[in-house]
Design goal:
The protein contains 8 helices and no strands. With about 200 residues, the chain is an all-alpha fold. It has one domain. Helix 1 packs across helix 2, helix 2 packs across helix 5 and helix 4 runs antiparallel to helix 8.
Length: about 200
């Protein structure tokens, strides 16, 4: 797990050195690229595990996410301290879940892989940011539609279902699921609002 954290940090430092000298801009671009690769790895691993195509244990996904959220929280504190408080709650909710409920990972393998399919929407979120920064508006609109669609399916519908499931099966994890669902609903509202204004 700490090896993965070190890799995240190393990737961030390497990416930062290739980009603009301004620390914040380098942080932003390196952070998006790092997040992009983590999202691809996690969603691919979840899909492979759900269809039994992978011989890797699913908790590799959990280790990767734990290392990423821990790394990104530290990076936000160093480079983007004024970031929305919700990002800190989001990241630390996962870190807490990983540390406190890791004994449940074996029991809820299928649910965990379904839960983290939400990372698919993150891929399109980063594509939107990159298309606004480097490409044209048409490319952005295509990604914006895919973002809204995947966000609604994997972060609104999927999280609502698993929040309900946590309520009826494991009350201990319910508050965390409810917190993350609330943030997802709020962020979806912001995405819709932004889409209407474009």
């Amino acid at each position: 797990m700490f090896e993965i954290f070190s890799i995240n940090f190393l990737v961030f430092k390497i990416l930062s050195s290739f980009f603009i000298n301004d620390d914040y801009k380098s942080y932003k671009l390196a952070s998006y690229i790092n997040s992009y690769f983590v999202s691809i790895c996690v969603s691919t691993n979840c899909i492979l595990n759900l269809f039994n195509f992978s011989d890797k244990r699913y908790y590799n996904t959990m280790d990767l996410l734990f290392a990423y959220f821990l790394y990104d929280t530290i990076a936000m504190l160093c480079f983007d301290f004024k970031k929305s408080f919700l990002f800190y709650i989001h990241h630390l909710s996962f870190v807490f879940t990983y540390l406190y409920f890791n004994n449940l990972f074996d029991i809820y393998k299928y649910e965990i892989n379904n839960f983290f399919l939400c990372e698919i929407s993150q891929i399109f979120l980063i594509h939107c940011w990159l298309s606004l920064t480097f490409f044209n508006k048409k490319y952005f609109k295509i990604n914006a539609i895919l973002l809204l669609l995947t966000y609604f399916i994997f972060r609104v519908i999927n999280f609502t279902y698993y929040t309900y499931l946590s309520l009826v099966t494991n009350l201990y994890i319910f508050p965390i699921c409810l917190t993350i669902l609330s943030m997802n609903l709020y962020w979806f509202y912001l995405l819709i609002k932004k889409a209407i204004n474009i």
